[in-house]
Amino acid sequence: MTTTYQRKLRLAAFIHHVWDEGKVDASDDYVAEAYTIRHDPGDPWDGKTLDRAGFKDRVQKSRAAFPDQKFDIQELFADGQNIVMTWLWSGTHMGDLPGFPATDRLISMSGATVYTFDNNERLTGHWQITDRLGVFQQLHRNS
User: Fold this and answer.
1) Dihedral angle computed from the Cα positions of residues 116, 122, 125 and 131, in that order, rounded to the nearest 10 degrees
2) What integer pLDDT is reported at residue 78 of this predicted model?
3) What sign has the CA pseudo-torsion 48, 83, 124, 28?
4) Which one of 55, 72, 95, 104 has the largest count of C-beta atoms within 10 Å of its C-beta?
5) Could you write out the three-class secondary structure of 60-109?
6) Which residues are CB-contacts of 62 (< 8 A; sequence separation ≥ 6)?
7) What is the dihedral of CA 59, 40, 122, 124, to 10 degrees?
8) Who's near 125: CB < 8 A, 6+ residues apart?
9) How big is the chain by its Cα radius of gyration, in Å?
10) What is the pLDDT along the chain (143 residues), one digit of tens a residue?
11) Cα pseudo-dihedral 27, 73, 132, 136, rounded to 10
12) Residue 1 pLDDT
């Protein structure tokens, strides 16, 4: 049986390897066959269920404009099979976004994500709230 502490370590490793370092193939070790984005306003994948290939595509496309992005995990809270992660994120805007050509400026935001795990300790999805408006304001100011 996995402890809460082990699940938190697993989530932190997933964030570091897949999202920070961009090692999309590491997703195979962390993500279930189906990953559902239950609530993530402003995310093009909001409300969708992705297979692993779709999840990898999401990571690659999400990182394209900010290839040096990093998550600074603030806190991890557990409730059953769920881990809540509060975080600060930053990345250099090196690639174009719709309506925002690359600026080479540092952009930052904060958020909270509830990650769900299955019985095999694989991630099955998330529910997230984040400051996307703040990102767009920074992009607009910096363009």
Assistant:
1) 80
2) 95
3) positive
4) 55
5) HHHHHCCCCCEEEEEEEEEECCEEEEEEEEEEECCCCECCECCCCCEEEE
6) none
7) -120
8) 34, 35, 36, 37, 38, 49, 115, 116
9) 15
10) 678 999 999 999 999 999 999 999 999 999 999 999 999 988 999 999 999 999 999 999 999 999 999 999 999 999 988 999 999 999 999 999 888 899 999 999 999 999 999 999 999 999 999 999 999 899 987 55
11) -100
12) 62
Q: What does the angle CA 34 – CA 127 – CA 77 come to, to the nearest 5 degrees?
A: 110
Nearest alpha carbon to residue 43 among 134, 140, 128: 128
* Look-up of token digits 């952009």: 107
